[in-house]
Amino acid sequence: MKSGTTVRKAAVQRTTVRRGLVAALAVVAAAVSPLPQLAHASDGSAPAETVVEPAAAAGPTGPTVLGAATSGYLTADGWDMYGNPTHLSWRAPDGSVASDLGNMTATFGVGVVQSGDGHAWVYHLTTSSDPRVKADFALEVYDTATKVWSGYPIPTTADEGRKLVPTATGWALVAAPDDTAGGAANTGPVPHLYTPNAAGGLDDRVVSGWPAGARWSGQQPASLPGTAEVSSDKAGNQQIVLIDTATASVTTTVPTALYQGANYPLLLLDADHFGYGAGRTAWVYDRTDPQAAPRTLTVPGAGTGEADMALTGGALLALDHYASLAGAGPTPAPLYAVPLDGSAARTLFDGAATLRASTGGSALVDAPNGSDAWATFRIPADGSAPAVLRPFTTYRPEHIGLSLGRGTLSRVETGAGSPVGAVEETVDVGTGAAPAGGSVLPRVWAYPAKDAMILRCGGQRCYTLVDAGSDLGAVHILSWNGKDAVETTRGAIVQLDTSGGSVLSASGNHAVYNSGSDGTQDVLDMWTERVLYTRPAAAAALWGDTLFTAGKVPGQVTQAPVATGKVSATIATDAPCVPDELQALGRWLYWSCGPDGPAGVWDGTTKKSVPVPAGHALLGDGYVLRHTGDQLLLTDIHAGTAAPDRLVATLPAGGYSDDRNITWTLDKFRGFLAWTGTDGATHVLPSGVPQSPVAVVASEGTASADLSRTSWAPSWTPSGPLASWSLDIRRQGSTAIVRSLSGGATPGDVRPVWDGKDHSGRGIANGPYTWTLKLVPANGQGPAAVVSGTVVVSGRPAFAHDYTGEGSGDLLAVTSGGRLDVRPGTGTAPGTVLATSASGTGWPSGSLFVPIGELSVDGYNDLLVRDATGHLTRYDGTPGRAFTPATPHHVIGAGWNIYNSLTPVGALNSVERADLLARDAGGNLYLYAASVNGVFQSRKQIGHGYGIYSMMIGAQDLNGDGRGDLLARDTSGVLWRYDRDSGGGLKARVRIGAGWNVYNSVVGVGDINGDGRNDLVARDGNGDLWRYDGLSSGLFAPRVKIGWAWQTYTSLL
């Protein structure tokens, strides 16, 4: 659990105290109105309550001291959204504003330098249109004595670094040219010193004595008047270089223990010493004997991270780098002073933050200045006691946002710092019948929202959270450069070109935003971060994927899919006005005619409205919650009438005119509600109102699945958290389950992923599949929800022998007159063949038809036809349409009349493709494996001696291995099965049974009974048609008669 946050169950005594308060109120209230009662469960007992203590603590705020000199110091009131300081002021030592420097736009560096004669300058880098300026940067310097700004174009040679350092009587800019052509020797860049001249420009001096082959890092130098300390890389290691700013020459170079490419060292410099630090170690040299071995100092304490360091008064100052004032309160660490003379280290402050070196060898640090006050202290260069430079104001956190969705409580609190920022925190309060003790969830934001980004409501900071019940979290608005940005607490953002707006409603991935500047309304898709459409502002509400909008006549509300906004239905709510506010939740639709009413809740079951009290309200499941005066009241409407108001809590009105989702809220997807008191503690408790059964309120991606690119990944949004869910997938019309998926407890969307394989790991075929989803509610109230639908799979091989596109095996039949009929299989138990659905005529006599399956790789089964001359042609199938000679086709080749049998065997050698077996007059068996371009690869002999068979039958997969199998009937009437072997050939034959010579046609027709296994259809000499159901063993069930008079067809396929 995060430090500073406590979650506790409310004590019995606490509940008793509240009941006592209610009883006391009865004496006053009874004479004027019905007594408000504490919200209670149906059995009359008080609901359990969880109390979440505030996370933010009181702490410092106010202008940040950016730099200091003897004559004063520089402060910034805050930081813009890009991290640049805003509203700079130069202050006298007593804290008064000597110069209001205002905002500096496009600031890329700001600070203070003090020359050796005590003169102080403020500088910053800004953009400039001067053509001599490199990369549009310019240097502006403010003379704190004369109060005059001077601007200097930065020469094109000053490309890297660009840091200001003090000199004996002024300042110099340290920079270096670009060295993109440094080459393998890695020479340069060599720093330059630029000093101001009388003409208003900069004199350029190349630093002499720069170590050959060294490259300046461009890091901020440590500096004193007359000396600049920089770091450089050379020959794989970093080194320290001292530069005399008067002569622009190197005076000292020492190597470091750091390799090139490591983090830059912390540069340390005072009047007598220089050195560097890394991690929690510092190496300090004597400036009078720089080549002597350095002192090695270790930062004391239990910290393990990097430390910030400075040299001041003959000691190394060190403070943990991550000690900060920002966020949900200060996170200080001890400030140590480690003397250079080897004496014992001492602690200057038990808790401090943000150590930084300052001018003249001094240092600045933020530290406590009393019981709960903080200040910026200056630590003098002579090592004397730290002195307060500027006190901070003690800031008391504000609680400016609250939402509750699917058992997750989200709170936004302002945190102390410079400036104040907003931090969002989420707490898991559970999804059971009562809120759990809860645990703090990981923070989503890495950094707090800047104060300039936080909206104001009536002059107060506000961060209204509208929970959408989705994985994206709650929706809110921040200000970005004066324009509204609608964001979620999980990081999605839609930047708008309007301002002063509000979020009316949110559900799932969508939100409705009303502009405050141009009278428009945007419907947003937060998942894709875009505006779906813009329309005139009107009362609107979302529930699931349905958008409700107030009509143009009293009481009328339109209903539309949120994706399009096109009206699909109209509701008559019996409201006496055109509603100016709508809220939707399941069967309930709240409407209001304004703050003074009237208001009501339309019940989609009874088609009538239940009148409820007017005022700012939130719609719950079967109740309305509102805040009136200092009372948070609940109106129970679940029984069809409004019960007397019940008191949830005594909650002072505060300064907000509308504090919904700021200080109180409810969970639309649970029975919980929440409120935050003046002490910052948030109370979570059940509503005490029976909840509706769980249901699906929205879905996405459920109707189709292209499995050629990815898995099927639909999503369903339930109306409440689930204990578990399960999804069964079947072929349309079949009772056999192809695949089952399931999951455990989930507070939000159900997002199964189906890879297009059955329970045995085999790929499935194209076509329609039915899915059945079962949702078990987490709260145990009501039955499980069961919903179903159809998903059409594409991108997979066509279903075996399916020529109608309905996902079942079909029979092709040819008459003596050259007509080819499509006779659909039912695909459901018991399994039969229906009347002709399509016919194609004009086929010449002598044609041999082969129902090859999907050869053209378009998702549909094709037909091979060998004409009397031996040419083999592929005719491309289209579901539901018959084959004719005019059907789009492709000639595969000639010479195919050398074969007396062409058998479509399915995926024998190719993966999920249509292979062909061909037998010649000598009984040799050849495999033609399907190719990627819709024809066949070169033939491969896989057997001989097959001339003993009078019939060869392609039956697709019979034994469940996902590969095609071959059936063959010998001259004595025995039927045999050949399974595919590991090399793409055939295994030894397996006997199926005898007596099959009674049939003049046997067809592997695919699955016609919907049990998920491939079947056979056989016609006997009388024209009767029989069905043999495939079994998991690769054998067949006893035959079942399914037709007669089939002798009218010359051949069945």
Automatic annotation (TrEMBL):
InterPro entries: FG-GAP (IPR013517), Haem_d1_sf (IPR011048), Integrin_alpha_N (IPR028994). Gene3D superfamilies: 2.60.40.4070, Tachylectin 2. Keywords: Signal. It comes from the Bacteria. Residues 211-230 are annotated as: Disordered. Residues 1-41 form the signal peptide. PANTHER family: PROPROTEIN CONVERTASE P. This is FlgD Ig-like domain-containing protein. It comes from Actinacidiphila rubida. The lineage of its organism: Bacteria, Bacillati, Actinomycetota, Actinomycetes, Kitasatosporales.
